[in-house]
Give the backbone structure.
Amino acid sequence: MKYVTLGRTGEEVSRIGFGGFPISAPNRARGWDPYTQEGRATAIRTVRRAVELGINYIDTAAAYGNGHSESIIGEAIAGRRDGLFIATKVVLGLDREGTVRSVHDSLRRLGCDHLDLIQFHGGIYTDDVTCHVLEEGPMDALLELRRQGKVRFIGATTEEPYSLLPLMRTGLLDVVQIRYNLIYQSAAHHVLDEAREQDIGVTLMRPLTSGIFQYLAGRLLPELASSADLYEACLKYVLSDSRVHVPNVGMRWPEEVEKNVRLVDEFEPPFDVAELPRGTNKVYDALDAETAQDEREHEHR
Ligand SMILES: NC(=O)c1ccc[n+]([C@@H]2O[C@H](COP(=O)([O-])OP(=O)(O)OC[C@H]3O[C@@H](n4cnc5c(N)ncnc54)[C@H](OP(=O)(O)O)[C@@H]3O)[C@@H](O)[C@H]2O)c1
């Protein structure tokens, strides 16, 4: 497994994280139900396989199956907590006491005496949401829990990265978890650069597009979707952006973990997505330069 320093936290974490959502959600089309005895046992084996293969970053949330994901992870890591970076979330909208209670419930389900990272579980950070976090108790609650040693780092997650900028600029966030993948590109233009400037740790939600790209491709370009591994393309894309520390990949079966770990170990990015041209003229310029280079090489042959 490859490891990376998670921004200003200074923690060495695996180059992919274990995304804890699918182990909380049945998916009949895939024959998956983590609420059956057999499904739960499989989910526990999957988490353990991830840890065995060196994945030390685990992302979950109090809201995933109302604690179901946390309780599976807690059972899977019992007696093996050392060296793991456990990140969970608290829903927005709670007051100070509710936020503290949620963190204590997460600690109990995970069987831990502290969390490495607690994140506000956000969608879009409108002005009202940001004001609520900063002025109505939630941030104070997490700062107090950090002083008590119950949590080590504070973060926030968002589906709309641009909306998180005001909260990032307070300097209070050590880590952000953002939606960024092959089809959702917004963060490439602003948040990823700013996070790098501030040395904030960057993790991703939906790095393989939660299957959305694959679903669309299956209907729009069925030949491509049946002949190419589009999950692999998505993982390679996010691994090729030097501004991203940890894509949290949702995985249900031990075989998925093995396949993704192998890919991370073997893959050397052919370019840095952070350096790719963005904007039409810049794309034209880059293609012109490549064409000129090809022509020069052709003349020399
Ligand atoms: N903060 C938030 O609001 C938020 C929101 C969404 C997600 N998240 C976090 O981000 C994590 C990742 O998001 P996600 O789980 O929605 O989606 P994802 O990681 O983009 O995609 C996960 C899906 O990809 C498939 N997959 C994974 N590895 C594969 C492989 N090697 N080959 C083929 N298929 C593979 C699996 O589906 P199949 O098993 O069906 O093949 C899996 O369920 C979540 O688990 C969660 O931790 C956070």
